[in-house]
């Protein structure tokens, strides 16, 4: 064997430390990987020369620009630097992926690049080559972030640099690692024990919902109640003992070490089949190795807003303000956004679902993103494939193999799915994204227009839009359906929360959709030509469309990178740190929180939310002062916790006929123009269907009542007692309405808890409105009470057929205003519209309801 070492003239071995030079020297598989791209070179040079010692770095590159290689090269550079400085024990280098499949994929890519990597052994140990600084460790977020992590149990182990792929998705996984979720399915006894222990506090926050939870009659965790903090704190010892007795179960084993000493600083929400317990502030400090890593690199898409990572991952605001970017990189790929309802109001969600659900397209894939399973029923009815756990992999494999036919419907998969090129040429976002966890639902329900809620919703929309375009040369049509989604993307206030690239695409979509409106031809049949003609210009690669898109996207100012509401989130994070600090000075916290509310909360609902946090923080110091804060919070936002000290019922006045007409005219005028009015009506229409989430359905019923001119109230929401809705419809007559919107259309009985709930609502009405007349109405798919229960009154039932009739008559009533001047509406016109569409009070009950079966 030839000894080449003897033939080397320069015996001194040079250790490369520049990432560009390191890459050029790697033993790459040249047939699979080539040279570094210009964008990669620019960000690596910037990092090496100026950001090498920064604690936090956010790396932002367009999808498909090669972030994985950049992250691996950063870690490889750190290995070289340790060798160059003779510091082998300076700490290990780690690359974290979202799941096991991505771990294996990253390791395969690293091998192609010639980068030495390894992963945790089957014996749950870190390979010695990683510890010795010879290899990079590639593992999953779940293996690193859990209460029994091997990284936290090694005192000697230090981390030099940690790279986290897809930081926003990783943040969600990391937060889940710190939250307790107890399910009836896996922990029935613990669920029952906690429910019983906390039941007095729960019932005070909603008697009807409590009855649903107690009898497990509220559907799929749609009904929930927050445990009042005063109940939680007062019973914390009993709570701790109950949970500690079950810590060996799968749901508690890996999270208990994180929260066991901080349960008092947690909130709790209970639903029909699960309980969630979550710290007021995400306890990232438990992960000391992560916190004290010498450098943390977070990889993020250019369209993502990174400011929420301040609270989610404890990133410093400097990294958010100054991300590592390629200054020459602008937009990536082509997205033709289309909003069908802007072309014609006949292009409703229902028509789009019917049209695309039945489509059999062989040349490419059609993918639909829906927020939850409650939106899949009509898609499935028309032939779409629902991506349930058992069907998803099979469907994705067909896409990979180029086998296309029926649309694929993905449920709440706004991130983590790459469906590039022909896998998805038509992407449909159906309705506004919603949240998964009970806590996220609660926040969305109590402050639906809060800055952080809007920011996270905008981020989900952007993530969803990115599923189908994964490279510069990729293209896709992105269709928005569902009036709630359309209203969101068109709202000027909400548009501020989108990235410049995404907002430009949305504005192009609004403009082109409006342009196509003039091509629509009114007839008995729906004219789909304007929509299809527009879509063909993308699918057939029309050169004028491509040039127009490029021209518009190049006008965007990509130099503006400062995230929206960054200062708000920084200040909020500091406030939350004070709230969970056991030795905080309450006077200082009170002043800081009040300043925060005054300077950063413009909405009454948001001010109330933070006042409730102040009330909670004050509880252990002064219960009377806490009650004052909670009362003030509740007065600003009736969706918050109801304090025990007040009786908040504010009666609504009886309605006279003339006042109803005035109410309708004022309500119509509040929308400014017919387009806004029609969008609001369409949102109500689409929300009033069985299978819709209760909060959404209840808001729609309330808005329906207002547009119909009635005086409305939501006693169960605002006062935690009474019916879901109370409508004053004429002098001394009220409708008491209970909604059961999430129930299956195929159910055959009204259960005992539901009849009891209606009876309790009637009793509440009699107590608070003595002498007034009432008609109780239950919106539910069946009219047959369970023999075990029964109504005390002649309750009217609104089933699917009656509900649909009301919806259709309502939408036709709204359409009457299409050509009218909103500033000069007359009483006579409105009275005529009410009569034509069967919306008179005297006919309402007989037209839209029926007696229950006796």
In terms of topology, how is this protein built?
Layout: H1 19-25, H2 38-51, E1 56-61, H3 67-84, E2 92-97, H4 100-113, E3 117-118, H5 128-131, E4 136-140, H6 141-144, E5 159-164, H7 167-176, E6 180-183, H8 184-203, H9 207-215, E7 224-226, H10 229-234, H11 236-244, H12 256-259, E8 266-271, E9 274-279, H13 288-291, E10 295-301, H14 309-313, H15 317-321, E11 324-325, E12 334-338, H16 340-343, H17 349-357, E13 366-370, H18 377-381, E14 385-386, H19 389-400, E15 408-411, E16 426-430, H20 438-446, H21 451-465, E17 475-481, H22 483-490, H23 492-495, H24 500-517, H25 529-539, H26 543-553, H27 566-579, H28 586-600, H29 604-618, H30 623-636, H31 657-669, H32 674-687, H33 694-707, E18 711-713, H34 715-718, E19 725-730, E20 733-739, H35 752-768, E21 773-779, E22 796-798, H36 800-815, H37 827-836, H38 841-848, E23 850-851
Parallel strand pairs: 1-10, 1-11, 2-4, 2-5, 3-4, 5-10, 12-17, 13-15, 13-16, 14-15, 16-17, 20-21, 21-22
Antiparallel strand pairs: 6-9, 7-8, 8-9, 18-19, 19-20, 22-23
Helix pairs in contact: 2-3, 8-9, 8-11, 9-35, 22-32, 27-28, 28-29, 29-30, 32-33, 32-36
Protein name: Helicase ATP-binding domain-containing protein
GO molecular function: ATP binding; DNA binding; helicase activity; hydrolase activity, acting on acid anhydrides, in phosphorus-containing anhydrides
Keywords: Plasmid
């Amino acid at each position: 064997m030839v000894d080449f070492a003897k033939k080397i003239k320069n015996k001194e071995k040079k250790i490369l430390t520049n990432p560009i030079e390191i890459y050029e020297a790697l033993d790459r598989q040249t047939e699979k990987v080539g040279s570094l791209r210009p964008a990669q070179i620019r960000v690596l040079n910037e990092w090496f020369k100026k950001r090498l010692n920064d604690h936090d770095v956010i790396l932002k590159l367009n999808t498909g620009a090669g972030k994985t290689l950049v992250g691996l090269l950063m870690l490889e550079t750190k290995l070289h630097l340790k060798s160059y400085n003779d510091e082998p024990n300076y700490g290990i280098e780690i690359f974290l992926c979202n799941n096991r499949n991505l771990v294996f994929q990253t390791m395969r890519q690293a091998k192609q690049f010639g980068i030495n990597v390894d992963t945790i052994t089957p014996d749950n140990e870190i390979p010695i080559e990683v510890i010795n600084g010879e290899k990079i460790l590639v593992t999953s977020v779940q293996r690193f972030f859990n209460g029994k992590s091997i990284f936290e149990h090694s005192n000697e182990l230090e981390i030099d640099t940690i790279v986290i792929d897809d930081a926003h998705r990783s943040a969600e996984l990391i937060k889940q690692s710190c939250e307790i979720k107890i399910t009836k399915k896996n922990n029935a006894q613990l669920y029952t024990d906690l429910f019983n222990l906390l039941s007095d506090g729960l019932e005070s926050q909603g008697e009807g919902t409590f009855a649903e939870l107690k009898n497990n009659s509220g559907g799929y965790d749609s009904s929930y109640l927050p445990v009042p903090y005063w109940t939680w704190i007062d019973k914390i010892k009993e709570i701790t003992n109950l949970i500690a007795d079950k810590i060996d179960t799968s749901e508690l084993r890996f999270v208990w070490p994180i929260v066991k000493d901080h349960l008092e600083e947690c909130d709790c929400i209970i639903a029909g089949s699960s309980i969630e317990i979550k710290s007021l502030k995400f306890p990232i400090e438990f992960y000391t190795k992560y916190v004290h890593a010498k450098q943390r690199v977070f990889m993020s898409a250019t369209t993502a807003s990174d400011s929420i990572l301040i609270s989610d991952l404890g990133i410093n605001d400097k990294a958010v303000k100054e991300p590592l970017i390629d200054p020459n990189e602008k937009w990536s790929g082509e997205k033709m956004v289309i909003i069908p309802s802007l072309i014609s109001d006949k292009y409703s969600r229902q028509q789009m679902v019917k049209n695309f659900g039945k489509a059999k397209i062989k040349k490419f894939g059609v993918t639909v993103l829906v927020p939850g399973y409650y939106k899949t029923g009509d898609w499935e009815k028309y032939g779409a494939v629902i991506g349930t756990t058992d069907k998803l992999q099979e469907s994705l494999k067909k896409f990979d193999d180029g086998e296309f036919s029926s649309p694929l419907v993905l449920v709440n998969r706004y991130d983590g799915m790459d469906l590039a090129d022909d896998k998805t040429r038509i992407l449909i976002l159906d309705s506004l994204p919603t949240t998964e966890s009970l806590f996220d639902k609660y926040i969305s329900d109590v402050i639906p227009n809060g800055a952080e809620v809007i920011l996270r919703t905008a981020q989900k929309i952007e993530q969803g839009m990115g599923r189908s375009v994964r490279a510069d040369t990729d293209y896709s049509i992105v269709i928005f359906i569902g009036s709630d989604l359309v209203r969101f993307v068109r709202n000027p206030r909400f548009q501020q929360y989108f990235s410049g690239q995404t907002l430009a695409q949305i504005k192009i979509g609004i403009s082109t959709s409006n342009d196509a409106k003039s091509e629509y031809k009114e007839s008995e049949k729906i004219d789909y030509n304007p929509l299809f003609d527009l879509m063909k210009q993308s699918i057939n690669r029309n050169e004028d469309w491509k040039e127009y898109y490029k021209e518009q996207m190049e006008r965007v100012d990509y130099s503006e990178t400062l995230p929206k509401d960054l200062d708000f989130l920084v200040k909020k994070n500091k406030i939350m740190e004070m709230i969970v600090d056991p030795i905080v000075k309450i006077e200082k916290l009170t002043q800081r929180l009040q300043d925060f509310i005054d300077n950063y909360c413009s909405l009454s609902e948001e001010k109330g939310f933070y006042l409730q946090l102040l009330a909670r923080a004050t509880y252990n110091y002064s219960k009377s002062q806490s009650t004052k804060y909670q009362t003030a919070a509740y007065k600003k936002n009736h969706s918050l916790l109801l304090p025990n000290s007040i009786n908040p019922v504010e009666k609504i006045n009886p309605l006279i006929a003339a006042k109803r007409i005035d109410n309708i005219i004022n309500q119509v005028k509040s929308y400014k123009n017919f387009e806004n009015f029609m969008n609001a009506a369409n949102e109500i229409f689409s929300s009033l269907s069985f299978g819709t989430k209760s909060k959404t359905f209840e808001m729609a019923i309330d808005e329906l009542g207002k547009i119909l001119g009635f005086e409305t109230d939501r006693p169960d929401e605002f006062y935690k007692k009474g019916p879901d809705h109370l409508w004053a419809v004429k002098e001394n007559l009220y409708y008491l309405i209970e909604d059961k919107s999430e129930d299956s259309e195929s159910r055959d009985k009204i259960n005992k808890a539901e009849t009891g709930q209606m009876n309790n609502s009637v009793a509440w009405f009699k107590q608070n409105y003595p002498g007034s007349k009432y008609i109780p109405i239950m919106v539910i798919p069946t009219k047959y009470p369970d023999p075990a229960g029964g109504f005390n009154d002649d309750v009217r039932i609104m089933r699917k057929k009656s509900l649909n009739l009301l919806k259709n008559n309502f939408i036709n009533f709204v359409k009457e205003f299409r050509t009218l001047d909103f500033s000069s509406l007359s009483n006579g016109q409105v009275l005529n519209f009410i009569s034509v569409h069967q919306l008179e009070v005297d006919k309402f009950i007989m037209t839209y309801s029926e007696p229950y079966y006796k």
